[in-house]
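F.,

This is the one I mentioned.
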């Protein structure tokens, strides 16, 4: 029930509230802490990196990312999965699937991955990320020394045969426009840091290969 007008606190007109900064002026000054990247690496006994898993829907990106996360947890390493579908329920829930919105989706995920790398974590992204230019943007944002592009190169026929979410069925029926691999292109990496085909590997074998990659590159002991 609203208060009588005589008891309500008078509110100043909008024009009376001063602006905190002149229009167009960004007063943003970064602050640096004293806990350096080297200190975090020493604490966690790992070097941060982002494994950017790219491939068609149904290729096995999320399954592989979460299996790798679990394996590393058992070995005593700190990691985190940034799954594309999960992020579209939260951080990116305001984005659609236009070309511009897909690029913004990739930019946001890359920025989050970079922050998690700054915290010392191993990060695994699981996104279709069909455009080479968007993946190049992600590499630039995260940093060359912390970015490994992993092409989950499972063929379209295998991905469509799996169709775990029924997306290919809906896309073939015209219910999902601009679906990657069916009505929209997927630009496969021309020279990925690593390529893995889950059509010919068990989950254990695929996970073992990525663990070996992390060890060979010096990100885990």
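My design for it:
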């Amino acid at each position: 029930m609203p208060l009588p007008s005589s008891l309500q606190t008078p509110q100043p007109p909008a024009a009376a509230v001063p602006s905190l900064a002149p229009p167009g002026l960004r007063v943003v000054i970064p602050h640096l802490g004293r806990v350096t990247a080297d200190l975090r690496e020493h604490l966690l006994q790992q070097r941060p990196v982002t494994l950017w898993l790219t491939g068609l829907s149904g290729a096995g990106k999320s399954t592989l990312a979460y299996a790798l996360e679990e394996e590393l947890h058992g070995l005593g390493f700190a990691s985190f999965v940034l799954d594309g579908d999960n992020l579209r329920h939260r951080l990116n829930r305001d984005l659609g699937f236009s070309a511009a919105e897909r690029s913004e989706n990739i930019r946001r995920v890359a920025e989050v991955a970079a922050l998690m790398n700054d915290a010392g974590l191993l990060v695994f992204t699981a996104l279709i990320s069909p455009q080479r230019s968007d993946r190049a943007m992600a590499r630039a944002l995260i940093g060359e020394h912390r970015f490994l592009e992993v092409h989950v190169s499972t063929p379209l026929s295998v991905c469509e045969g799996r169709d775990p979410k029924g997306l290919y069925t809906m896309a073939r029926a015209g219910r999902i426009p601009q679906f990657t691999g069916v009505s929209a292109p997927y630009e496969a990496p021309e020279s990925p840091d690593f390529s893995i085909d889950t059509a010919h590997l068990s989950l254990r074998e695929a996970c073992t290969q990525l663990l070996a990659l992390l060890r060979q590159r010096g990100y885990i002991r």
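Helices lie at 37-44, 61-75, 84-87, 99-118, 132-142, 156-162, 167-172, 203-216.

Talk soon.
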